[in-house]
Task: inverse folding
């Protein structure tokens, strides 16, 4: 039976705590949410952290503390975001690896991001990739657009396989500026993935969340859910917590006879 890796992205860098109090922004909230999500079926957590004012930060001390707390309290694979927020400088994003996570996100190109630009120039991508290889952090390649898929192929051709020898990619659909969160766009992007990709997941931002979740499961892919990507459980009905979104993804995966995998199984899948 082919099982499903469920990744939860509980916080992100864009959502405002004042408007969305259920967003886990303190370490205590993040750990509680992570435990609930693990119980609901998540195997990996994609982490952005906030400062005392609930603003996105890449503070290294806090990142280290967060990695330690998640390891102590959960069995989840800890993936730190190197994407940060659109305002973070590239050197601070590279320094995220100093917090020694299990995994990190690695976006394969620049993309318009709503009214902003999420900047990922080729020299930054290659430096980050080389560091992951050197420091044995398993990257998850974030693909927001078809050009990012081509860049992933170029990266692997030039620098070889990641630490662990597996290639796990995550398609992010629905960012204004990137691929739309539609099933045809997902099918297209999956067909374009380099042969070296050993597993892929997908997430639909906002309204595209459910169609992408269902299509991804049906296509044999893995899934990412969470308040970073989608704030609503149903139209006009905000999600009350990340675990609610994870539980629904796990239930759907069960219905499709692709039950959620454990963190140990997920480690094997991505080469940890
Ligand atoms: N916050 C976005 C600008 C990642 O985590 O690597 C970038 C992002 C991707 O969320
Ligand atoms: Zn992120």
Result:
């Amino acid at each position: 039976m082919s099982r499903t890796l469920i990744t939860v992205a509980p916080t992100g860098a864009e959502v405002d705590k004042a408007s969305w109090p259920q967003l886990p922004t303190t370490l205590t909230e993040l750990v509680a949410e992570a435990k609930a999500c693990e119980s609901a079926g998540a195997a990996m957590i994609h982490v952005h952290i906030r400062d005392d004012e609930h603003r996105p930060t890449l503070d290294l001390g806090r990142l280290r503390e967060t990695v330690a707390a998640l390891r102590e309290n959960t069995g989840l694979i800890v993936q730190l975001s190197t994407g940060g927020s659109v305002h973070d400088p590239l050197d601070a994003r590279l320094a995220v690896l100093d917090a020694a996570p299990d995994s990190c996100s690695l976006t394969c190109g620049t993309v318009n991001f709503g009214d902003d630009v999420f900047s990922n120039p080729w020299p930054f991508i290659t430096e980050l990739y080389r560091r992951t290889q050197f420091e044995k952090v398993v990257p998850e390649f974030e693909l927001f657009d078809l050009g990012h898929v081509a860049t992933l192929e170029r990266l692997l051709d030039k620098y070889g396989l990641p630490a662990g020898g597996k290639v796990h990619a995550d398609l992010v659909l629905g960012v204004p500026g990137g691929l739309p969160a539609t099933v045809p766009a997902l099918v297209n992007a999956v067909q374009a993935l380099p042969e070296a990709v050993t597993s892929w997941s997908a997430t639909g931002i906002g309204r595209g969340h459910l169609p992408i979740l269902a299509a991804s499961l049906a296509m044999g892919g893995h899934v990412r859910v969470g308040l970073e990507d989608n704030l609503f459980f149903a139209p006009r009905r905000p999600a009350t917590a990340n675990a609610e979104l994870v539980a629904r993804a796990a239930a759907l995966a069960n219905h499709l006879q692709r039950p959620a995998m454990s963190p140990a199984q997920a480690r094997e899948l991505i080469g940890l």
About this structure: DSSP finds nine helices and 14 strands in the chain. The two ends are 21 Å apart (CA to CA). The first helix runs from residue 27 to 40. The domain at 6-270 is CATH 3.20.20.70 (TIM Barrel).
